[in-house]
Amino acid sequence: MLVAVILALVIHVWTIVIAFSETGLFGGALTLVFPIFSEVYWFIRVWHALGIDTMYCVAILAYLGLWIVGSIAFALTPSK
Question: What is the CA radius of gyration of the chain?
Fold first, then answer.
């Protein structure tokens, strides 16, 4: 879970930088306030502009995969 939290923080900061460089202070501030919606929006926008094989899109997909695997592992772990 620590890896997921660190990766989430890195991706969010990365998304803020992308939003700020593309739309300025207002876009960066909106991205800061609405993290999940912003990551989805900027993932789609970067994907369409540069392709899914960019480092940003790969990081988002890796993060999503990490959450899926973690959720399955948590569901399969017997509780005490």
Answer: 14
